[in-house]
Amino acid sequence: xxxxxxxxxxxxxxxxxxxxxxxxxxxxxxxxxxxxxxxxxxxxxxxxxxxxxxxxxxxxxxxxxxxxxxxxxxxxxxxxxxxxxxxxxxxxxxxxxxxxxxxxxxxxxxxxxxxxxxxxxxxxxxxxxxxxxxxxxxxxxxxxxxxxxxxxxxxxxxxxxxxxxxxxxxxxxxxxxxxxxxxxxxxxxxxxxxxxxxxxxxxxxxxxxxxxxxxxxxxxxxxxxxxxx
Length: 229
Hints:
alpha+beta, six-stranded antiparallel β-barrel, two-stranded antiparallel sheet, 4 helices, 8 strands
């Protein structure tokens, strides 16, 4: 478990979890503290498939994982869970079920916003994917921006559509004051794809009306017949 920095409340052993995707705006578990900050040497990418929440096996959604990259910085949110082993186990159990597409849990140093010299917490848990399609069946790998944008624009599943995930992440990063240029560019391309799809569906093709002339026949009154006596 993680150990807190002396600038935090205490030195007790606690659980720290770093969120860089949907955990930024929707943690879904009980926590005691939330801190904006970053981890080093990783960057956010949309290379992981989701087939049961915002996608399907036929058209998987693209969601976030982290790619190792020396010198990179990934901003997000760290959550602290205190209260003993039972609370920690409950949080980990929930996260392992929710983050089932991620096949690795790593420990990293987390740096608080504005304090970049020493980590605020060490041993912080992060869920990531092995970057190997054979090792992790959910790993999609990188793709050209236009291809990713089309996939994200069209994918949807029981919990919503893929584009909502991307747009919510874009907003969440803006809300914490650390917009991600990659996310912004991808979201922009997805909006262009959606605009093109909307334009296509707005064109209504009316069936041709047959030019058939109808003959209207007016009924004549019955003739009066006079009988000779």
